[in-house]
Amino acid sequence: MPATIRLQREPFDAAAETAVLTGGRTDIGAVVAFTGICRGAEDGAPIAALTLEHYPGMAEAEIARHVEEAQSRWALLGVTVIHRYGRITPGEPIVLVLAASSHRHDAFAAAEFLMDYLKARAPFWKQVEAAGSRSWVEAKQSDDSATERWQDAKPRRDAAE
Fold it and tell me: Fewer CB in a 10 Å sphere around the end CB: N or C, the chain?
C-alpha cells in the first residue's frame, strides 16, 4: 500500500496530491482529505503567523509509525501525510492527510485517526506570533482525549459501505 510522508516548508496543493495518490487507479472507491489551515486568531486573539518546528528524522519516523498502525487497522489503498514547518501565515495550509480505500468507512476512520495522532503526538512545536510578541503553544487536553479514544477502539475492516 503506497504511503507518502513529507515534511516541508513550502505550501502544498491538496488537489494535486490527491491526483498523485489516485492516478490510474480503479481500486480506490473513496479518498478522505483533511487540510489544516492556519487561522487568523488563536484563542480569540488575532495572530500574524505560526512557526512550526520539528525534530527532523524523529518526526518522519513517528508519523510513519502511525501510518503503519492505520494500515493495520483499516483496509487502506494509499495514504499521504504532508506537514509543513517554518513560518506559516493565516490562510496558508499546514497539514494534509489523505486516506484512500475501497470504501468510505475505512478512509474516514483512518484520516481521523491520523489527524488525532498528528495533533497530539507528532513531535512538532508551535509558536504563535501576535502583536509583536511570540509564545509557545501548550498541548491541549482535548487533543490528548481525542487520541486516547483510539487506544481501545476496534478496527473496522469490513467491505461494506
Answer: C
